[in-house]
Every structure is written in C-alpha cells, then in structure tokens.
Amino acid sequence: KKLRESEERFRMALSNPSIAVFSTDQALRYTWFYSTAMGSMTERFIGKRDDEILTPECAAELVELKQRAIDTGSAVREEIQLELGGAQKTLIVSVEPCLDPKGNLCGVVGTCLDVTDQRRLEAESIEHITEMEVHHRLIEYREKERQEIARDLHDGPVQDLSSLIFTVQVMKEAVQNPTIRLEFEQIGASLSQTVSDLREMINQLRPPALIRFGVAKAIQHHAVDVLERHPELSIELNLVPLDEEIHISEQVNLALFRIYQEAMNNIIRHAKATKIWVRLRKLGDFIILEVRDNGIGFPVSEALTKHMRSNHFGLAGMQERGDAVGGVFSASSEPGKGTTIHVTIPLIDHHLE
Predict the structure, then answer these.
(1) What's the pLDDT tens digit per position in 19-56?
(2) What is the CA angle 4-10-15, rounded to 5?
(3) Which of 16, 22, 142, 269 is most buried by a 10 A CB count?
C-alpha cells in the first residue's frame, strides 16, 4: 500500500508541466528524461549531453552544476536563467550524485522546476507595491503643500485684509460726505467678500472637520457650503455612521474626502446637474463611497485614460488616490444619464498602516 501511495505521488509530481526529471551517466549523457510539457520530444535527449542539445551558453551552466555534484559527491541546487525555445526561462535545478547497487558513482539524477511565471508575478507584485508607495508619497507631498498654502493664506493675506477692513471702517466713520462714505462701504464689502473667498479656499485646502470628526462629518460640512454657494443644487446625503471602534487611518479618511471633493468639483464645473446623491457606508471589511449626479454625463465605453486626456483630469487624481490606499475606483456614465463615481477601500490589512 505504501509503495502504491508513493508511486501515485510520484506520478502526480511528474504530471506537473513545470517539472522535468532526468538521470545521466558519469559522462553526463542522458539515460532518462521525463517532462509532461515536452512529451515525446524528450526521446531525442537520450544518449546526449547538454552541450549537444542546447546552445553553448545554456549548456555550460547545466553541465557545471552536474559536474559539481559528481566532483563533490553532494547535492547541488541553484536557480538559473536559460534561453529555451527563444524565450527566457527561470529554472530551479536540483542535481544529486547517483550510486549503483555496489555504491559506486554511476551518474546523476535531478529535476528542473520552471518558475518563470512565478518570478514574473513576484516582479510585477514588487513593481506594483513600489508604484503604490510612490503614489502614496506624492499624495502626501501634495497634501503637505496644501497645508502650507492654507497656513500661508491664513497667516498672511487673510490677516492683512482683515486689518485693512478695520482701517476702511475707521476711515468711513471719520468722514461726513455721503458719497465718500458709500465708496468706503463698497470697498469694505469687496474686501470682506475677498476674505470670505480666501477662507473658503483655505477650507478646501485644509478641511477642518476632517481631522476633528472624520470623513462623514467633513462631507456634511462641505455639502452645506456647496448648497450655500449653489442653491440651485439638491444634495441628498446617505452617510451611515461608522462604528467608533473601527480604526480608519488618516490616509483613508483623506482619500475618501478628496475623491468626494473632486467628484463634487467635476459636477459643479461640467455636469450641469440639478441633483447629487452621496452615499458612504461600511460593507464587511470595506468602506464604500458613491457620488452620483443627474447631469449630462459623458461616454465611458473606452479606456479611462482617454477621458483623462479629454478634460476629465479629475478622474486621474481620484483613481490615484484610490489606488494609493489599496482601493478600487470606477467611473460610470452615459450621455444624458449622469455620472456615478464609486470607490471601495479595504479597512483591514491596509498596506500603508
């Protein structure tokens, strides 16, 4: 029974197309070669050495490994790269000396495991992680710049203009001429509007509610501001409170808010919408944000990159922010049927935490 089980395991191993098994004599000529992937082609190996089958460059590494096993009497295992059939292959080659029944060296036995696809996937994974880290660092840098600009605006122009408004008010009270008083009043009103616009810009750059209360409250505050500036719009919010015990990183909070913010900016600038729906919810181990409008829409039947090149630049930024926190971003739209922005971000095993 144990022999049958052993034979069955051996057959299963040999059925793997990534594995080749072989044996050679002391002269390193193949006495047996088996590979499911190569089938009957393996028969042409029998009685030949690697340097009679492969190019000199490829054969040299294999011959050196086998000869080392014979010379040292020990197993040898290495990962090598060979060009086989016009394609670059990565192989893990294991070679052991083979002894006859009398204990004399009679050749080697070994295996070749093709790990080309595995190494390619590993390289792609490393490249993807590196790309995500670069996105993350760029976004961090942009946010730092936003914070610095907001601070400079608040500590500089806003303070200077506020002081100037006070001066204009004092000068207005000091004159009696109604015409001059009216001009001072108009100047003061214009300065006050400028200060208000600057404070709105500061809030866009550094939303105060986001750090204090989280993304749901920040969206609520932002929506109120949008309605004050655009009373023609109707905004319906469906923001499910997130459990307090769930830790949401600052990066995720910021990514969600910036995606929402950019979606709203696009709607106001381009969509000609009258109704906006915003939904934020937790589903399992994910947070889902959806921003939908009833605007003019645009065709998204082709790749997202085309729309990035045709004045839909906000989509690129939203996708970058979603990618940087391990999320999945999508935009769906049709002419005359509005647009839906959807992003799903994982809560657990977050690669940036």
Answers:
(1) 888 999 999 999 988 887 665 556 788 999 999 988 88
(2) 125
(3) 22
- The model carries a pTM of 0.56
Question: CATH fold of 210-353, please?
Answer: Heat Shock Protein 90 (3.30.565)
Enter the DSSP assignment of 352. Answer: T
Helices and strands: H and E segment counts in the chain: 10, 10
Of 26, 184, 18, nearest to 99 by C-alpha is 26
- The secondary structure of 259-293 as a DSSP string is HHHHHHHHIIIII--SEEEEEEEEETTEEEEEEEE
DSSP 8-class letter at 37: T
Report yes or no: 266 and 275 within 8 Å, Cβ to Cβ.
Answer: no
Q: CATH: 3.90.1150.10, 3.30.565.10, 3.30.450.20, 3.40.190.10. Which one for 2-114?
A: 3.30.450.20
pLDDT tens, 99-114? Answer: 988 889 999 999 989 9
Classify burial at 164, counting beta carbons within 10 Å of its beta carbon; exposed 0-12, middle 13-18, buried 19 or more.
Answer: middle
Q: Which two tokens stand for residue 201?
A: 């810009």
Strands (E) located in the chain: 19-24, 30-35, 76-84, 87-99, 105-114, 234-239, 275-283, 286-293, 328-333, 339-346
